Structure formats: structure tokens, C-alpha cells
Amino acid sequence: MGVLITGGNGFIGKKLVDYLVKGFSISITQRESEITSQDAVKSVVTGDLSEFAQWDSALKGCTQVVHLASFAHKHAPAIQELEQTNISALKDLLVACKNNNIKKFIYFSTAYVHGKFANLDVNENSSLIEGEPHLQTRITAEDLVKNFCSGSDINYIIIRPTLVLSHDAPGNIRTLAKLVSKVHAFPFKAISNQRSYLSVEKLLRFTKLCLMTDKANGGTYLLADEKALSLQQVLNYLAASQKVNIRQFYFPEVLLRLGLRVLGQKERENVLLDNFVVDSSKADKLLTEINMGRR
């Protein structure tokens, strides 16, 4: 069973390749500056994804696609670059999928299409965010996948993962992990927020399930671990993974928020201090049904 994983040399891509390589014939796309050798994996160098025109070659021998490639974390592109990579390149890939008789297309979006903070639990029917360019392109991309695949013979699945919690994760988690390794005291004892995170293991299991069964076809799935965590618990997890001891001390939450805003870190304030609890029961139910059916 051939699977093309775009962004196969990224954080999730590498872990997904390692997880699937024994049971699937894996092809990946990756940027030229990120070339690494992976045994038993066909690699196609794309350069700038928005300018890549060799999708037929990349799709050769594949029947399914997992689309991970997009602007994220370290990139801060202009809106035109966002649209070219997250929408235009996606459309080119979908057209190539149709021409190459691809049977299933799995699109990785993000739970943040619902916003980055919420006082009520978020589910697949919750309202979508407006006004943030990066997330707007994700919403547009989701609609493109649904509409294109619905008008062809391609089954689609859309996955909206929450922030992946792992000691080696990129983005805000990497920033926190670096702080934990250098600073062993944090002023977050007053913070009692709850946010949903996602383990690498659950992300990999659900993706494999989507590849191996048709029960997920045509669905959109928020994906998170069952238990939400506070910022203190996240820091404790990262400290334990690095085998360091940290302590939390009290500092008024209002002053923490004020300090982050003065520093121009409003987004980081939302992601670190506010609530964002995801209802992942739709995906969890599917995982349970499949596991029960295998016993």
C-alpha cells in the first residue's frame, strides 16, 4: 500500500514515516534544504512547494496521501506566500491526485481553526476563527479538500490536531523546553488554566487508523489527549523528560498578562495562559470501535 507523505522531513513527518514504514510503501516530499537519508523511503525534493510541478512523479506507486506540508511555527510569511503554499499548491496536488487515481487524501489542519483560546469545550461544530491569515488559509484549504474530493472519486479525511506535547516538539513547546533546561523557577503557580494537548503516540495511531480503514472517510476530526493540562503540568512534564527539577512560585496572573502584552506577546499569552479544551470524543470513539473490532 503506497502512501505519499508531504512534509515528510518535518517533526510529525519523520515520526510518521518511522511509524508506518514497516507496513506501507512510503514516499515523501521535502524541501531541498532539509534533505536527509531514510532507508526504504522514496524521497522527492520539492524546493518551494508553491513552485513544484512534479506531483505525478511524487505520486507514482501511491494510492493514499497524507498532506502535512504547510507554513507553520518558524515561518512568518506574507499572505501571498501563505495562499501559494497552503492553498494553491494544495490545489495542484489535488488535481494530480485525481489524475493519478489516488483513493484517499488525509489533510492535516489544526484545532486552532476554532481559535487559540475558548472558555467552553471545542468540538467539530464549534465556530471557526476569523481574521487571522494563517488560520484563514487552513479553513479555506479544508473547504478546498472537501469540495474537490466530493466531486471526484477521492475519499478525504480532515484531522485537526491540538498542540503536540513532546520534549522535541517545535514552536511554543520547544521554547518552553529550552527555558526548562536553563531556568528552574517559574512564576506560574497562580495559573490554573486547562488546555488540550496531543501525544505523538495518539496522533500516529489515529493517522494509521485513517489509512487502514474506510470508517473515517468523509469526516473531520479534532484530535487531543483525553486529559487537559495546566501550564504547570506542561512544565513539569518537560522537566521530567529532561530529568531536571523545577519549582513554581506565585506571581499575580494579571501582571504576567500585562508583561506579555507590553512585550508584544499577546498570542503567546493566549496559548500559554488561557483555556482551550478540545472534545476529541469523535476520534476517540472511532479508535475504540476499531480496537474492539480487532479483538
Structure overview:
With about 300 residues, the chain is an alpha/beta fold. The chain has two domains: about 1-165 and about 195-225 and about 280-295, Rossmann fold (3-Layer(aba) Sandwich), CATH 3.40.50.720; about 170-195 and about 230-275, no CATH class. The protein has ten helices and eleven strands. It has helices at about 10-20, 55-60, 80-100, 135-150, 170-180, 200-210, 230-240, 255-260, 265-275, 280-295; strands at about 1-5, 25-30, 40-45, 65, 105-110, 155-160, 165, 185, 195-200, 220-225, 245-250. The strands form three sheets. The chain has a seven-stranded parallel sheet, sandwiched between helices. A two-stranded parallel sheet has the order 7-9. β4, α3 and β5 (about 105-110) form a beta-alpha-beta unit. α1 crosses α6 (about 200-210), α3 (about 80-100) runs parallel beside α4 (about 135-150) and α5 packs across α7 (about 230-240). It is globular, with a radius of gyration of 20 Å. The two termini are about 25 Å apart. The model has no long low-confidence stretch (mean pLDDT about 90).
Task: Explain the layout of strands and helices.
Layout (H helix, E strand, L loop, with lengths): L1 E5 L4 H10 L4 E6 L10 E5 L9 H5 L4 E4 L11 H21 L4 E5 L24 H18 L4 E7 L1 E2 L6 H12 L2 E2 L10 E2 L1 H13 L6 E5 L7 H12 L4 E2 L4 H10 L3 H8 L7 H13 L2
Parallel strand pairs: 1-2, 1-4, 2-3, 4-5, 5-6, 6-10, 7-9, 8-11
Low-confidence stretches: none
Task: Name the CATH superfamily assignment of the largest domain.
Answer: NAD(P)-binding Rossmann-like Domain
What is the straight-line distance between the termini? 23 Å
The CATH architecture of the largest domain would be 3-Layer(aba) Sandwich
